[in-house]
Predict the structure.
Amino acid sequence: LNRQFSYQALHGTNQDDGLPRTVESLRAIEINRLLGPKFESSNSAGESNSSDEGKKEPVDVIIDLHSTTSNMGVTLIVTEGDPLMTQAAAYVMQKCPPEDRVRCVMHTHPNRNVRPNLSSIAPHGFTIEVGPVPQGVLRHEAVEKTQRALHALLEFLDRRISAPAELQADLKKWYASKNGQVPCFRSITALREGEMSGKITWPSASDNPNFPAYMVHKRLQDRDFELIKIGDPVFVDLEGNTIKYDGSHGSPVYLMFVNEGGYYFKSSGTGMAVAVRANFDLETGELVQEDDREDEL
Ligand SMILES: [Zn+2]
């Protein structure tokens, strides 16, 4: 993540490197002011912030629209235990056409304060990740997929206000055959501090932290949401030697954000994300069981 919404990033307490703030870190502070603030207490903690603008209400829901260079289809990213957003994901998965390949990824975090992403500013956060899209490129069909998911999500929120009983009846009906459980991928808990979730990382060049020393192996390219197990090739070094998966995040596991261009830089979280199959309860948004069947969702 190059734009961080952690307490440290928003309050300048990790600026011990003596470097000036980046554009992204300044933008994070602006967005937090516009939509939040995320950390309520910080304003009343005696900071000499003499802003006399009228106090704005923080927003309830943030929908964060992303593109990724990875072959992720349409991936809805929500947090465990937020039934508003997890039901929204269940709704969007039913409303979008199958060819959009809509999947749900659930992060498990004790609370939003420990999530450093943009949508953590609001009590309810939802990220729509669409790929593959090269950086800096607008692709018509990717924009349309994003629109379909976004419109379904807005329809869900609208129906939740205008006709909540009917909405709940529809959701129950759609997931009745699955006993009210919604299939998803659960991201593996981060092994390294400061990360959203567990990642298989690659080293950087010794003389440049922003230049990867390994390439993602061709066998993995474009194979997001496919299983890998111990011994499968994951990287190739610059001499052409294959680096195999060592099982550090369990085995077998699913990979996400395979060869994401934004993660080449050490400061933005180098690596591929790891997940397992799971189900969440339609009513509570809590995970109910893990499920590593190999059949397609
Ligand atoms: Zn993203």
The first strand starts at residue 61 and ends at 67. Residues 66, 68, 129 surround zinc ion (CB under 6 Å).
